[in-house]
Amino acid sequence: LEYCAEIAGQIDMVGGREAKRKVGGGTVSGIPMDMVEEVRLLAKGRLRSVYTDYTLDKLGRDKKMFNIRDDIVSRTRGTHPHWEAAKISEAFSGVSSEMVRDLIFDENIRVDGRGLTDIRPISCQVNLHDPLHGSALFQRGQTQVMCTTALDSLHSAMKLDPITVITGGLKEKNFLLHYEFPSYATGEVGRGGAGANRREMGHGALAEKALKQVVPDNRQFTVRLTSEVLESNGSSSMASVCGGSLALLDAGVRLSEPASGVAMGLVTRGQEARVLTDIMGMEDFLGDMDFKLAATRSGVCAIQADVKISGIDYNTIKKAVEGGMEANHKILDIMDKCLDRPVESKSCWPVSKNITIPAHKRGKFLGPAGLNVKRISGETGVQIQPEEEGVWSLFAPSSAAMEEAEMMVEELLEGEKAPELVFGAIYTGKITELLDRGVMLSLHPAMDPVLLHNSQLAGGKVSHPSALGLTPGQDLQVKYYGRDPATGQVRLSRKVLTVGAASAVKNLQTAMKRNAPDESDGSKREELSSLNVQPDTKDSKPSTTSTLTSRTETKETVFNPVKYAQMLTNTKVGLEKVNTEANSSIGGSIYNQSEPEPSTLPNPNNPPESEHSTSLNPDNQPELIPSPVLNPNSQYEEEHPTIIEAKYYHIDSYINQLM
């Protein structure tokens, strides 16, 4: 700050030495006094007649003033050829300023006939054009502004450059105000599309800052407000605040409070000062201050002061603020008569919605390289953007477009309705493809093929599915273990069905050795024989207990689960009448059936032990209990429940009896 003060002091020193001298009233003078006196003598009466004609508008008043100026320049140049035309015009501006001040101080009246605290006539209109999301036309005197509001997706917010992010701390803007001041607003002809100048950028920034205070932070749209000045006679930026507030309400934006704006002016004469309310262009040009104040009924939103004199005192500032708040309340009363609350609905408004896609359906929703999403956006105009894990946002230009997009999404996700799989159930699937890491199984035509990994094919290590003799088109029975919570992939296992029988027999023998460690081999045989199944009676249900065979080779002392699994695969315990005479010895024969039937499933309470499992020849592996058939092309046929009950048995039943 010390260095800045030093630089400012140097600037003041140079300005005092080189700049033009300022005189009272705020006029800049480097003009001879004789020139000023002659211009005042020629112009004073004519200017008074123009400034007291209250029927003139801005263009009419300016036209007469310019005619008087040109006439005075030509007449003085005739009598004083050495006088410069620019100096004469400057003297005329000074005389005009003196005349305006005299009317205000002596008669308390302004050039358009208003009092010092009066505001110009105001008119408001909203909903100018149906396709617009929000629109308003605000006119105050000869200042007319048309404001339009456009709603867009939050992803359309303006991304700021890194320097602005570092200095301002704001990464993106989702509320934008574009202020346009074309040349025709002041009756001039200029080149269009040249871009905004510094004046437009400053006025637009002031109006945006004022409205940003009342726009809600948790809005679901990016709001773009355009303010186009159609005609200007002062205070066009404050008119943009008034019109912008109405346009936002017309677009359904729930403002905390409506906002308005007014420009306060100041004229001085010696030690006297007068504060003006709602100044117009001439008073801004000939006055000493332009104080813009945007506010609501409860507080101030934004201020900007352009002071042309060396300084103003506290009482002047206080009068300007109090007068501005009072004028804003009057303006808000007029605006409330036009529109005092947000519009509830319009057919042209956009619609925003979030949808959640399950993990296992995201592939269908997106399509290859996002083709499905691009097709939906291209056909309906709906913007689809990812939000968080599994959630997408849909932004549609209308409700009809949103409904069409939702129907397309439902068609993609549903197709043929797939059955709901039950956790822990056994299903039959058909192999569609052999991969290095596993096989692809088709459980139902409406379901995509799922991967059965090599680690879940058999108990041992499987390098490739072909090592087990698996081929495409072959049916496999697998157990369903739900979906992976992270990826949504289906979890299947065949290993638990193939190695469960061998593990159960191993656990049975271990338990029997623990219960009778000191008994002889004969007593063990008698105990096993006593557990054989009794013949079924006519009125009783088929018994689920069965005869358990032991190895006849007494010389082997090590249990081999592989041989037991193979033995269980090739044998079938009869559920019909069992020959009681064959149960006298441990080597009693088991009745073979005429047709081989599938083996049983392991007990869920007795999980398989992977250390006892091994890779078995698929031709010798045990067949399993058929499950509900999901694939209509499967080789298994549905059978009557009583036939299945009589035909198959469950290994858990006789294991529990033996235990």
Provide a descriptive summary of the structure in words:
The protein is an alpha+beta fold. Helix content is 36%, strand content 19%. The strands form 5 sheets. It has a 5-stranded mixed sheet with strand order 1-2-3-7-6. Strands 17-16-15-18-19 form a 5-stranded antiparallel sheet. A 4-stranded antiparallel sheet has the order 9-8-10-11, with helices on both faces. Helix 14 packs parallel to helix 18. The longest helix is centred in the middle third of the chain and has 25 residues, at 314-338. The model is unreliable at 23-29, 527-559 and 568-659 (pLDDT under 50).
Radius of gyration: 47 Å
Overall spatial form? elongated
Average pLDDT for all residues: 77
**Helical element count?**
18
Summing up helix and strand content along with how strands pair, one would put the structural category as alpha+beta
In the predicted model, the low-confidence regions spanning at least 5 consecutive residues are: 23-29, 527-559, 568-659
User: What is the straight-line distance between the termini?
Assistant: 93 Å
Strand order within the widest beta sheet: 1-2-3-7-6
Which percent band covers the strand fraction?
Answer: 15-25%
Question: How would a textbook summarize the main sheet?
Answer: 5 strands, mixed
Tell me the number of strands. 19
Helix content percent band: 25-40%
